[in-house]
Amino acid sequence: MSESSLTEMAKAKVSVAIAILYQDNKFLMQLRDDIPTIWYPGYWGFFGGHIELGETPEIAVVREVMEEINYEMPMPESYMVRESDEVIRYVFHAPLTVGLSELVLSEGWDFDLVTVEELKQGCRFSVKANQVRPIGPPHAEILLKFAAEYF
Q: Which end of the chain is more exposed for a tag (fewer CB within 10 A), N or C?
């Protein structure tokens, strides 16, 4: 394999499908595990994850949400595709139609509904962590744009 092919492979972007889940003008967010090898460790972020080989983004977001919080999303609607140098984010939205007590967190440190004001501040308190933790900047940016358009 040529050096340029190896360089291109190293630059391959990760594709993820993520969910904006909303209820009462608030957004369900996950406090990500505080593991240095993951994206945005210890930050509040979206539920969702990597798109597996052969999966569509729509199937991936439904699968990831089920795996992470045991929630069967209503049919997700595409909101945007946001691309950076490292990642392509396929962003979907759907209402959260159950109470938080009905969700089972299987991935992450904590989860809760986050307000627009907290998004603007860029941080939120976690009861489980017993500390204020930052909100991932791309996550806050996407949610603030969504809130301005839909709420």
A: N
- The pTM of this model reads 0.89
DSSP string, 51-74: PPTT--HHHHHHHHHHHHH-----
The residue behind tokens 């962590």 is 129
- The candidate with the shortest Cα–Cα distance to 141, out of 41, 57, 40, 23, is 40
Domain ranges of the chain: 3-150
The residue whose two tokens read 């597996």 is 52
- Cα–Cα dist 151/136, whole Å: 21
CA quadruple 68, 98, 109, 18: dihedral sign: positive
pLDDT at site 127: 95
- Buried (b) or exposed (e) across 30-44, using 16+ Cβ within 10 A? bbbeeeeeeeeebbb
**Looking at the domain that runs over 3-150, which CATH code has it been given?**
3.90.79.10
Helix (H) / strand (E) containing 135? none
Give the model confidence (pLDDT) of 88-145 as tens digits: 999 999 999 999 999 999 999 999 999 999 999 999 999 999 999 999 999 999 999 9
d(CA 141, CA 52): 26
